[in-house]
Design brief:
By secondary structure, the protein is of the alpha+beta class. It has one domain. A 3-stranded antiparallel β-sheet has the order 1-2-3.
C-alpha cells in the first residue's frame, strides 16, 4: 500500500449507524459502497471471531474492541485504490467523526511514523 499511496491517504469512517445505512443502500441496488461494505463487514467479523485470549484491539489504544466500535478504512487517495487497511476504533478513543479519525491517525502513525495529515477537498472554490 505504501508504494500506491505516495504520501496521500484517504480515511473512510464507518460507525455502526453508517454501516446500517450502507447495507440498506446495497439492498436497494446501490453498488457504490459494495467494496467498502465488504471490507468493513470482514473487519467486524474478525473482531467478533477473535478469541477472548487474543482479542482484536483498538487502533489507538490497547483496549479490546467490543460492541459499538467504528471501522476506519485507510487507502490511497485515488479513484480506484488497489489496497486498503481497515482498523477498529473503540468508543473510548472516538465517538464523533473527528475523534475517530484522530484515533485512526494515531494508530496509523504507530505503524507508519512519517505519516502527515492531509486534507483533500472534493469540491473546488472559485477565486
Amino acid at each position: 500500500m505504501a508504494a500506491e499511496v505516495r504520501g496521500a491517504i484517504k480515511l473512510i469512517t464507518v460507525r455502526p449507524i453508517d454501516f446500517a445505512l450502507m447495507l440498506a443502500d446495497v439492498e436497494c441496488g446501490c453498488t457504490e459502497h459494495l467494496g467498502l461494505m465488504r471490507m468493513v463487514s470482514d473487519t467486524i467479523g474478525r473482531v467478533h471471531r477473535a478469541s477472548p485470549a487474543e482479542p482484536m484491539l483498538c487502533a489507538a489504544c490497547p483496549a479490546p474492541l467490543a460492541g459499538g466500535f467504528a471501522v476506519v478504512v485507510a487507502h490511497a487517495a485515488r479513484i480506484t485504490p488497489k489496497n486498503g487497511l481497515a482498523m477498529g476504533v473503540c468508543v473510548s478513543c472516538g465517538t464523533d467523526l473527528n475523534s475517530i479519525e484522530a484515533a485512526a491517525i494515531k494508530g496509523l502513525r504507530a505503524i507508519w511514523p512519517d505519516l502527515k495529515p492531509l486534507t483533500i477537498h472534493d469540491q473546488l472554490g472559485h477565486a
